[in-house]
Amino acid sequence: MSFRFPLLIRLSGVLLAFCALAATSCSSTSNGTPESSSASETTSSLLPAAEGKTEYPLTLTSPYGESVIDKRPTRVATVGANAVDTELLLSLGGVPVTTNGLGFNKAPWLKEAAADRIELVFETESWDQYPYESIAAAKPDVIVVFGYDLTNSFAKLSEIAPVVTSDKPWTGYFSNPWQDNIRILGKVLDLSGAAEKVISDYDSYIAGIKQANPGFAGKSLSYTVWFGTQRGLSYQSLPGSIITEVFTSMGFTQARNAGSFSETQTVSPELMGSIDADVLIVSGSEGATEATPEAIPGLTDSAVFQGLEAWKNGHTVITEKKSPAGWAMSTAGPMGTRVALDILVPRIAEAIG
């Protein structure tokens, strides 16, 4: 059975969709009221023109503390290890002055969009490390980081510039929807209209996939990542996670035993049966050097894996190391998710016939 997927977008198309947003403008408020961005101000080369909707000073409250932004920022440092904060800024048509190479260098869609325009791409060895002196040297007006626990770093980052982060507690990876975060960033940068446009465009994209693939409706799906023989298989489509929301919005349902991974995401031999679903996706990470679209030595040749109904029915989709789908889905931002789904959706449709 053939499948329909009219909304396939090449990587360059994804970049154009997000980097060519037009900014709207409004007049500034009169003296004596909080400062509002003016449409007549000179547009920064790092940001689109202000929309004139945000009033400054702007106070943000997060689980880690309070940030006060006195005026519209122009120099934005994005520092999160998965670079989803960089992705959100690029989606709004902006360019950061810094980004974290740990995630940025794994995301070709981000590098193509802005690699030659970012002043500093810094390297760290772990997600909770920040080169404070280097960030300070970039002279940011604000520091943006989404998707991480800032309990031990918020105060030190705040000594450099006001910190923009989620207004909800961090409860684990994939726990803070990018839609909430881009609205926060949009308000900070006086680009709320642009933020809503990114969200509506993404919603239309997902709706198009759902409409073009009615066979997805009601089928259960498990999404996993193979990290190689050392770390093994990780279950990613946890109940209530962003990844699960992506697939359920396309018509799929939560796998019956997804709750088995509430304590650990590691798929042990004892838990292997719990990943079974109508559709099983195994994305290869950088460590999955042995992964091919047909098989993964050390995983798919095991008796317990071969006993899965998804494998026996031919409903297993595997992406190899060179595919950007694994990292793109893991960042769970508007650009990365499109990149991942452009790869995964046709293969899912082909697998289930």
Overview of the structural elements:
Keywords: Lipoprotein, Signal, Transport. Residues 1-22 form the signal peptide. It comes from Arachnia propionica. The chain is α/β, with parallel strands linked by helices. The protein has two domains: 58-197, 3-Layer(aba) Sandwich (Rossmann fold); 214-352, Nitrogenase molybdenum iron protein domain (Rossmann fold, 3-Layer(aba) Sandwich). The protein has 13 helices and 14 strands. Strands 10, 11, 12, 13 and 14 form a five-stranded mixed sheet that branches. A three-stranded parallel sheet has the order 5-8-9. A two-stranded antiparallel sheet has the order 1-2. α1 crosses α4 (108-114), α7 (178-188) packs antiparallel against α8 and α12 (325-331) crosses α13. Residues 1-43 have low confidence and may be disordered.
- Overall mean pLDDT stands at 86
Q: Note the gap between the termini.
A: 5 Å
Overall number of structural domains: 2
Rg of Cα set: 21 Å
Beta strand count: 14
Order of helices and strands: HEEEEEHEHHEHEHEHHEEHEEHHEHH
Helix content class: 25-40%
- The CATH architecture category of the largest domain equals 3-Layer(aba) Sandwich
Topology:
Blueprint: H1 11-19, E1 35-36, E2 55-56, E3 58-62, E4 65-69, E5 76-78, H2 84-91, E6 98-100, H3 101-104, H4 108-114, E7 120-122, H5 132-137, E8 142-144, H6 154-158, E9 163-164, H7 178-188, H8 192-212, E10 220-226, E11 233-235, H9 242-248, E12 253-254, E13 279-284, H10 303-306, H11 309-312, E14 316-319, H12 325-331, H13 334-352
Parallel strand pairs: 5-8, 6-7, 8-9, 10-12, 10-13, 13-14
Antiparallel strand pairs: 1-2, 3-4, 10-11
GO cellular component, one term: outer membrane-bounded periplasmic space
Subcellular location: Cell envelope
Pfam family, one: Peripla_BP_2
